[in-house]
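Sanity check. The docking grid for S-adenosylmethionine depends on where the pocket ends up, so I'm generating a full predicted complex first rather than guessing from homology. Inputs follow.
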Amino acid sequence: MTGDAAGHYERLAARFEENWAYSPAFVAWMSGCITGRLRPRTGDRGIDVGCGTGLYSRVLAEHAGSVVCVDPSAAMLAQVPDGHGLLPVRASLEDLATGAVSLPHERFDVVLAKEVLHHAADEHAALRTLAGLVAPGGRLLLVMLAPVLEYPLFEAALERYQRSPADHDGIARQLARHGLRAEVSTASFQLAIAKERWLTMVADRWMSVLTKFTDAELAAGITEIDRRHPGPVLKFNDSFVFLLAHRPF
Ligand SMILES: C[S@@+](CC[C@H](N)C(=O)[O-])C[C@H]1O[C@@H](n2cnc3c(N)ncnc32)[C@H](O)[C@@H]1O
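Predicted complex below; grid placement will be based on this.
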């Protein structure tokens, strides 16, 4: 993980779920998006790479029985609940690539990497590593934010986010080179968040793109959001791209 990302998640860990889980309805929706695509079955070997606090490792483990939870941030991993079939392993994608950290299994039936690929130092190497974890008959799910955000952020942040869009078709082609067949789908959830809470999340720089702005720029951005969005509740679509890949037997 880059130095920036490392500091970012160590700092955010204590409030990560408060900021990222949005609402129980959102977590239930996202859990369904994940399990509906990955189809974890009892006895499957599961792994969640860049698992954070294990928010979605838990739902995989409920179906599969056991999930290896991999994250380079000690503070994030410390919040993965004990038991529930969750096995935390402190490692980055890069550590897995070099073999600096070894895993309890070489191959897994279900592999989840949600909102982590953009943190990889080398996307090609990260995709090779993730593909290498998939057993014959196994599935890999990459979950990414949509290339255009409908978030009520300030203009400069939206523009900055859109500067480096993920190339989903290119990712699918790379996975194909590693023997996986990939398909891309999208889904959206309509969030309703109290403006006060949203502005606190922005001030917390909960999204990594917000770390690119100085304190003064962020303060001006928050004023801009507040002005543009009158009313106490913000409603907007949270849209995701799901790249599901499977390795034939
Ligand atoms: C946006 S959070 C997503 C956490 C979790 N997947 C979720 O959706 O709740 C990104 C996570 O990726 C981890 N991360 C950052 N760089 C990474 C890397 N190079 N390899 C693996 N994980 C990384 C961070 O520590 C953080 O927990």
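Relevant for the grid: The pocket of S-adenosylmethionine is lined by residues 1, 5, 9, 20, 49-52, 55-56, 71-73, 76, 92-94, 114-116, 119-120 (CB under 6 Å).
Also worth noting: The mean pLDDT is 94.
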